[in-house]
Amino acid sequence: MRDWRFNSNDFNSYPVYSGDDLGVCWSKERTLIRIWAPTAIQVELRIYRQGQGGSAIRIDQFEKAENGTWIIHLKGNLDGYYYTIRINDGNWLNETPGPEARAVGLNGHRGLIFNPEKANPEGWETDTRIENINATETIIYELHVRDFSISPTSGMQNKGKYLAFTENGTISPQGLKTGIDHLVELGITHVHLLPVYDFATVDEQAPDKSYNWGYDPQNFNAPEGSYSTNPNDTSRILELKMLVQSLHRAGIGVIFDVVYNHTFYTRRSPFNQTVPGYYYRQRSNGTFSNASGCGNEVATERNMVRKFIIDSLRYWATEFHADGFRFDLMGIYDLETMNLIRTKMDSISPSILLYGEGWAADKSPMEETWRAVKTNVSHLFRIAVFNDDFRNGIKGNSFNIKSKGFVSGQTIQEENIKFGIAGACFHPQIVYGYVEHSKSPWATEPWQCINYASCHDNYTLYDKLALSCPESSEDELNRMVMLAGALVLTSQGIPFLHAGIEMNRTKNGDFNSYKSPDSINQIDWSRKSTSHQIFSYYQSLIELRKKHPAFRMKSAYQIRNHLFFSSDYHPGVASYVLVNHANDDVWRTILLVFNGNPDAITFKLMEHILWRIVARDEVIDTNSTKFVEGNEIKVSGISMLMLVED
Questions:
Q1: Is 0.85 topped by the overall pTM?
Q2: Looking at residue 122, what is its pLDDT?
Q3: Where are the domains positioned within the chain?
Q4: Rounded CA gap, 261 and 229, in Å?
Q5: pLDDT at 3
Q6: Which residue of 28, 311, 442, 525 pairs with 172 in a disulfide if CB–CB is 3.0 to 4.6 A?
Q7: What is the CATH number of domain 8-114?
């Protein structure tokens, strides 16, 4: 029986291959396949007619090549044939498509040789990504492909599929816009898609019988087949490109959620069946370490692991015209790898957005000093991390059902809220000792901070508030959801919205719905009607942010020079002014007051300023002609007030 313990020091002696031709290279005349397998003593290629079942129609041997690689040249046009690779390193390992496979058959067990031109939609050559001047201009909307359209209320024909994103004119049973038209109507700039690479746990033959978010990676470079109309061929590539093309035509960028930090299988993964042990970190006793909490963690610091990740991202950025990448558990990655990724993406387009979770799920053998955790963000070049300090301050601790936050009346959250308002950058008026988790600022610039109230993880915002505030009325819960949106969308940094937050999305109180059924995860588009006031409020907030650069300052220096918090303390209230045409805004001065208390307060105003009321209660009107009379104003409970001096 094979001993699966490894000495990670041995991996440093493995040769490094720098070429850009790993994987399958097809032409009508021949197909070339190169893999990196430095421990192999024999490598076998098997060709199949189908993606699953049946026997190999031919078996060929790879030849040993330079720097640990093996290569095979196959004459003739093999477009449409399937293949597997099998390694003998003293024992015959399992057949896999190899780590680099860009097309796979049913359920990802065999690779597919294909003509890339056939997988391009009409007009693909003119498709271009959304170019942003500064990352703080983006407004991200996190979305799961299946959730988007699977509900009977979606009005879309291609339910649960990539192609649902190509449908225009779809409406809910109440006649309101759904699908891509809803995204345009809402005004977001970028869609963040939960993983769309090939993942392991949904049977592509029967996708309606199971569900997963996709954080169970199987083949990193091939799209997931359960979202396509035919998982047996290149439809998954063509239709994902059609999704991207459709969103780009609507002026919306596409961000791919990537999960290079771990694989679903460990010993049985294509990584481990090609170069055993190399792709994973090990504990001192030689067993696999598990900072992902999913059974393993990828050793990003090793040369060929780093190369795999960068090559894979380059492929997605160029082949699928990606506008950005979100890194799951980015705290597992080493800092050097993340900065090399930034450099590579800049060579493609500097506007490609990079951000991730600045933490790991468990302990890693790599010291935290060298990893891309939140406290090390100053060592990352133009890469952002999620502001969980702000998230918890807004709604309460995500892991404690009873925990309340600022919008739900918890009056010890003011410094957490100020921390988020300043984009996690240093501001002299923030008392960091009272910030719940981070006792010092971790962002050096606002574009390093992703501000959010909720995401796919844990409870939806509405469910969290309803569960932690069982005594609150529906009207009060609605006001909490609107106040949370107001905080996220007016704060410095990059705002991030969980799909459906703008219509009180619920998962019926499911805390971890990663494999729950559609009945839990689907977006119920009927809620756009019952929560239309909330939708309109979020729509107005987004329009406000896009029109007024004061809410998206480009540097921490600007923030410290234009943003000043009120020194008049009210429990459960956060307030500040943006002064002197912040970031060249047309408004001279902007005053914002956030009242998290259930009861109204009276707020004293600076004298000798003619304040115009832009936002009050549920209404935002940038063209309002209403002015404040006197030197104080009433601020309703659980609401944002915004006054401006033109």
A1: yes
A2: 97
A3: 8-114, 562-645
A4: 29
A5: 60
A6: 525
A7: 2.60.40.10
